[in-house]
Structures are given as structure tokens and as C-alpha cells.
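Cross-posting from the modeling subforum.

Setting up a comparison between two proteins and wanted a second pair of eyes on the formatting. Protein 1 (sequence, then C-alpha cells):
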Amino acid sequence: MTASAQAFRAESRLIVVPLNAKDFEVIEDRGEGPRGIWCAAADFARSRLGAGGGDRLYIKTGRGPSISAAGRKGVVFTLDPARLGVEPSRGYSVSLSKVGYNLPVGHAYSFCTDYWEEFFPAR
């Protein structure tokens, strides 16, 4: 395994596993909800894939059994809507299950502020 293919620990402390050059999986842990999972996806997309705030993150495989960590749950994301097999969609709630659901990387990364405040509380 090359260094670029190794797992990544996101700001939300979740593990992100690159699956190929376009897709990656966020592994659930500690009962983390949608905000933490989207934060991890955005952090990986920015840090490892060079995505900008206006690029979009898409759910490729909704929340379910992990494909990279046996016995765990995960969500597979992609930055490439052509890899979905369905039309991209948007909504008012933050989904983890709907294939094609997407958010801008900048919006998803804003969920990471939950973790910044934990380590750098306002005075």
C-alpha cells in the first residue's frame, strides 16, 4: 500500500479509506452522525484530493456495511457525478443514505467547526 492509499484521520476523528483514485469511504465510529461523516469526507477531499470549496461531494454508496472495514458501517463518497449511476440530487436535510445526494465541499467542511470548538472553545 502506498502512502497516498493509506487511511486518513479526519478532523472529526473518523477514518477515511481511499478506494481508488475517485472514491473513498468514511468509516462510522463512536455513534458519529451525518455532520461528522460529511466533515470527514470534506476534510479528505480538501486535504488529499485537492478539492476546492465549490467542488461537490456525492454519496456513491449510502450508509451500510463497510466495504473496507469488516464488521463496520461506512459511506462511500466521490467527487465525480459520472460515477454515481443515478442523477445527483439535493435536499433540505443532510442525508447519508441517498445515492447521488451531494453538498459543496465548503458546506460539508463547515460541519468541522463542531470539532474546532471542542478543541478551541470560545472564551
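Protein 2 (same layout):
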Amino acid sequence: MKAFLNFTAIFFSIITTAIYGQDLKVTNEITSFLKDSLNLSNLNYPKSVIRLYATNNYEYLWLNDKQKIDQASIALSLLTNPNRFGLLPSDYHLESLSLERLKQFRSSSPEKQQKEKALFDILMTDGLLSFINNLHFGKYNPLYHPSYVDSVRINGFCADEILSDAGRQVGFLNLVQEAQPKLKAYQDFQNYLDQSYATNNAMSPPVEMEKILINMERLRWINTQSLDYILINIPSYTLEFHYNGNVSEFKVVVGKPKTATPILESEINYFSTAPDWRVPHSIFLNEILPEILKDRAYLRNNHYSIYDEAGDKIIVNSSALKEINKNPKKYRIRQSSGNHNALGAIVFRFQNSHGVYLHDTPQKQFFNRDNRALSHGCIRVQNPKLLAAKLLAFDSSKDKIPVLEDAVKTYRKMDFVLKESVPIIITYLTMSIRDGKPTIYNDIYQLDKSPEDKLNENKPNTIAP
């Protein structure tokens, strides 16, 4: 009996040593790779890769059992068809990753090709992290460089955590796709691509496909996670208010190419009726002051007043005008409220460093034009009272709508503070999907060239389905 127990102990000791020896070989190959700075320099997100393997005890993430190999097949199908998600097949290590190599590793014995398997597994991980980050942030995000994305959690998003969770669940594909923006404009693009592939249609013409890639990339740069928001698209001259699953669309006037409306994100906290217009100094200096110098009556005729640095109103006579012309930086100009005011009856305020806002206009005829790039940079909206009423209704303040209507009618100054701020997105999309079909807009600020050049640097000769 003692001999049998000794034999059993020795047997299990041998088996245990063999098993852990095999695992140790995998661990050594992976840790060796991840300690080599030259190897890490070939990865797009090296810090994220290291974090992911560290939480997995430096074992295979994709080649350690049948389930993971099945996951790897799904993952490879994503990486080898990035056009289906508005991405290009660069940065996903497709020169080293393929289903053929996966099948080869599947059929080989565990102890063989350890180095090649470790490399395959790591490149697979980095390719998927790149894919997830590109889906969420875009590849050329002006706010977040890949090295920054690799180092920190941004608005709660962390690609290695998402990939780790996806690898443990059946719905791997759905979890990865959850990284995509929830904006309707983006979902419209994605649905269009899905339908194109599902019906086996020929891929979109190169120019159309390029526009899709560029504009999906821009939509990934937007941080807003809310499903309720105001989106202003400069090239289409439109404002969309998305609320409770509904969309209300308004025409807008945007900045001329020389005074372009900035691309930004902010929040509307309140709006005001019967606003004064505190004229930007550049407009005062370049446009209004020359008119005043020609005819002082210009001030009275257009309801302007000039103020000094202390905020005191200036009586504009000949001597005062000479002083103003001599030191214009010391003076400010303001237009009183009324139907003559450049801001119209309502102005919607949101914090930004550009000094722009959304407002009414007395020049209603501009909304009948096809080309509405006509302002100094601020956005003029058609039917602002309706937009204000919808904001109040969305804010559970319908009882304030009659007060709003009276204030607009009588040009009474009032501030309407929202209980919850509404995200506002000013973006630049030269294409959208409307009624299931692509619609291309004029690139009024010629901004497509920069992302287009970057996409072309990585674009294959043909964009295959």
C-alpha cells in the first residue's frame, strides 16, 4: 500500500510538472516579448496589451482552448473586414493574422511553435484593441492621440477592459460593436454599410465610400454619450434636436468661409428673450466703426451705443469719435434689443472659447437660400421660438411655454434656465444617409482634404467588400 501511494504521488508530481512546465513556456514567451522594447514599438497600444496579459497571468488570450479559438475566428472576421465598420485594414496586423494561420495553430501540438503562437496571440490582441479604439475614438482624433488613449481611461472607456469582458462572454461580437458611437448620424452610416454587405451589393463607388469613411471618422471624435442632444451640421445647414427618440429639424445659417463656424461640443444651460447684442470687437473694428466714421447717424439708425472700459455709455460727438478712432480697443459697442437686433428675439447660450452662440435673426430671407454660409461664425436658426418651446417641453417645463411666447411677442427680457442642460454638437459632415440613401453636401470650408489625405495614406488600391 505504501509503495502504491508513493507511486501515485510520483505520478501526479510528474503530470503536474508537465502541465505547469507547458504553461510556463507560454508565460515565458509572452513575457519575453512584452519586455522587448523593439517588439513593443511595433504595437499600437503596448500599455493596454501589457495590462491585458497581466490580468490573464501572461497566458494565451486566444489560443488556450476551443472557446477562445472560436472567439479568435470571430475576431479575425472583424479585423479582416474593417470596411464594414467604416475603417481601413491598416494597423490590425493583417500581414501576420489570418484564418489559415489560426487553423494551423489549432492543429499543431501544444508544445510546438510556442514563439509563433505567442506572437500571433499578442498581435491578435493589439489588432483588436486598435479596432475597438478606432471604432470609439477614430484613428485621427484631434483631441486624443493613441499614446494618450493607451495610458488613461477616457470618459469611462477602456479598450482592454472591454476586450477582456468580451472574451469571457458569448456575445463577443455585440460587446465589441458597443464601442461605436450612439449618434443617429453614425448609426445611419453603419446601417447603410450593413445593408450593402447583407444584400451582396457591389461596394459603393470610391468617392462615395471615401466620404463615408471620412464622416464616420469625424463622428467618432464626438464625446457626447447622451441620446438626447442638439446636432448642428455645418455643410447641410441644419440643426437636429434629438429627444426621447424623436428628431426635429431646423434650417440654420452658419459662418462664411472667412469667418467659419467652429466645430465644438458644449451644453445649452439656458436661453434668453429680447437679448442685447454685445458686438464682437472684430466686427466693431472692421465693419461698424468705418460706417460710424462716415456717418454718426449710423449708430442711432441701427440702435447701437458705445461704452468705455468702465462700462459707461459714451456720447458720440466729433471729439469723442476722434478718440474712439485713435484707441478703438478701449471701447465696446452694444445693440439694444428689439426687432432690429442682430440676435433677434431669442438667443441660446452655451459655454465655448470661440464666443459663438445660437440665435434668432431679423434676416429671415436667408433661410430661403441654398447656400447659407453667411454669418460671422454664430449660428442663426429658423423658428427659434419652436426650438425653445421643444426644449422647455423636453425639460418638463411646458407650463413656461405661454410665458415664452409672451416674452417673444413683447420683446421682454427673460432668462429660461433648463433643469438639465442639453448637449450641443457643432460638427462638419459632408455626407449623411437620408431615407436610406447617401446625400453629399458641399465641402464649404474645404475640410475634407486633411482626413482624406490621412485615409489615402493607408488606403489599399481597392476597397473590397
